[in-house]
Structure formats: C-alpha cells, structure tokens
Amino acid sequence: MENQKITKILVSEEEVRERVVRLGADITAYYRGINKELMVIGLLRGSFIFMADLVRQIKIPLIVDFMTVSSYGDGTISSGDVKVVMDLDSSIEGRDVLLVEDIVDTGRTFSKVIKMMHNRNPRSLKTCTFLNKPGARLVDIQIDFCGVDIPNEFAVGYGLDYAQGYRNLPYVGVLKPN
Ligand code: PRP
Fold first, then answer.
1. pTM passes above 0.70
2. Alpha-carbon span 27 to 29, nearest angstrom
C-alpha cells in the first residue's frame, strides 16, 4: 500500500523488479566466463536492498563485500569530501570488481570511490547504479550498468532515505512537501 507521505511514484514495485532482472541478465552476460568469482561491492547504507535483489539475479559465482562512506555537506547535497567509515573486508587486487550504488546524483561520491578502488589495482572495475539522476550531475563518471534514469527530485524508498527513514518502501517515490 502507498505511504501517505509520498506524493508521486518514480519507480513502481513492478518496475523495480523488471529493471533488476534486466540488470542481472546484462551483468551475467558481460561477466560470463571470468575465471574467478566476481566481487560485488555495495556502498552502504543506501545500496543494501538493491544489492540483495541484484546478486540473486546474477547467475555466475560471486562474492559480496561492503563499504560505508560518508560525505560531508549541508545534509542535502554531498560535499564531495568522502570519508571511509567502514572499509572492505578483503583485498580487491587482481579481482574483477563491480561497484554498486543505489543512486548517482552529483556523482561526487561514486567518483571518489571509483578513484579509491582503482588505486587498489583490481583486474577490472565496472560500475552499477539502480537510479541515475543525469540532471544533477556535477562530476562526469562512467556508469556501466544503469537501472533507471529519474528526474532531479528528492527520491526515497528502495534503500534511499530521508533522515534515515523510508528505506523500506518497496518502490521509489517523492516525498510530499512539509
Ligand atoms: C547517497 C547515495 C550515494 C550518494 C549519491 O548516500 O547512496 O552514495 O548519496 O550522491 P552524489 O552522487 O551526489 O554523491 P548518502 O550519503 O545519503 O548515504 P546512504 O547511502 O547511507 O543513504
């Protein structure tokens, strides 16, 4: 059932499922035949729901790891000053790595994390985001696997929060103004 605080749905529950299935199929096709398990890295906290759905649609052997980064800013726009709050558990050196985000907005967070990961010498590094906001981009980054482009509105649900709430909504929507 729809949440009373949501004014508009950007990605319905059904569309979420369709997009994740398609991403899983694309990623499976791309990596089929790699000789070691794919390493899928999720950026917390936002990506946890998408990660859980996505990895079940990737039909090749893989392992998962997570990293928590925080960006300092005024709270609504990330400042680009990214700090690692919780690092990966394992080394990515020589591995095929897929970095997973819930949303790429300005691109600052992903850009910093991509640079950080490249410095650790993975065998290959690709990027995947469920949501993409091209209209908000400030830093040019390469997204290899993209779920849905959305307009430049503040989105919540399917892992995305407002003041840590709404992450459990099974769809992506826009909050009503206060
Ligand atoms: C959100 C999101 C991305 C980032 C995108 O994280 O998960 O990491 O912002 O914004 P950007 O492209 O402008 O850098 P947030 O800092 O809200 O933390 P969360 O993952 O815990 O929700």
1. yes
2. 5
Q: Is the CB of 15 under 6 A from ligand 1?
A: no
CA-derived radius of gyration, the chain: 16
Ligand 1, closest atom to CA 102? 7
Check pocket membership of 13 for ligand 1, CB cut-off 6 A.
Answer: no
Q: Which CATH class is domain 6-175?
A: alpha beta
Q: What is the pLDDT of residues 71-87, one digit of tens each?
A: 765 555 555 678 899 99
Helices vs. strands in the chain: H and E counts, helices first: 3, 9
Residue 149 to residue 30: CA distance in whole angstroms: 21
Q: Given the structure tokens 């992450």, which residue do they identify?
A: 167
H-run or E-run covering 25: helix 13-31
Active-site residue list: 105
- When pLDDT is cut at 50, 70 and 90, the band that residue 70 belongs to is confident
Tokens representing residue 155 in the block: 């989105």
What per-residue string of b and e applies to 104-119 under the rule 16 or more CB within 10 Å gives b? bbbbbbbbbbbeebee
DSSP letter at 165 equals B
